[in-house]
Amino acid sequence: MKKYISLSVLFLVFSSFSFSQTRAERNQLKKERIETAYNSTKELIESGRFQFEALWANPLGNDVANIGQNISGGGAIFQGGRVDVSSNDNFVNIDGKKTDLFLPYFGRVFFPKRINNQGGIKFKGDITNYRIKINEDKQIITIKFEAKTENDYLKFSYRINSGGSATLTVSSTNRQTISYNGDIKILNADAKSK
Description:
Blueprint: H1 2-47, E1 49-59, H2 62-69, H3 74-77, E2 78-79, E3 82-84, E4 91-95, E5 98-104, H4 112-115, E6 120-126, E7 128-135, E8 140-148, E9 153-160, E10 165-172, E11 178-186
Antiparallel strand pairs: 1-3, 1-4, 1-11, 2-3, 4-5, 5-6, 7-8, 8-9, 9-10, 10-11
């Protein structure tokens, strides 16, 4: 009987050692995958040619989402104070010091006559004050730039994590601030344009 107890204890010790070794290997593989994704994202950003595509819009005021939920079918689009824009055409293409962008807008417009009922935030042209900041320790990349239209001044701020998912915050002189959650991707030669 003592022999069986000793064998059982030995088996438990060996199997727990084997399990912890497997866990350590899994953690190492996960760490390597995150590092590879971060390096790819960083390389893409440093190339100066990338595209942001939004999945969610986050209006600053909840009143927009509350109104949207009262619209027929709005419950599927307006969820928890944010708006599903994954099925809408939206993009921010960065190519060097130029951008081409269209983002759907939900929020208050302060000066409607100045934006000419564009249906969203739309701009194509040169950008200014383009800055990239890379935090190697936290594996976070921030990008800021500005764009000036005839009647508006736009400020863009990205916060990009290691896997390429990003939050983009857009401030405007004519609109309430809005943010978008989405993904950073490679800018294709046939990228969308409005």
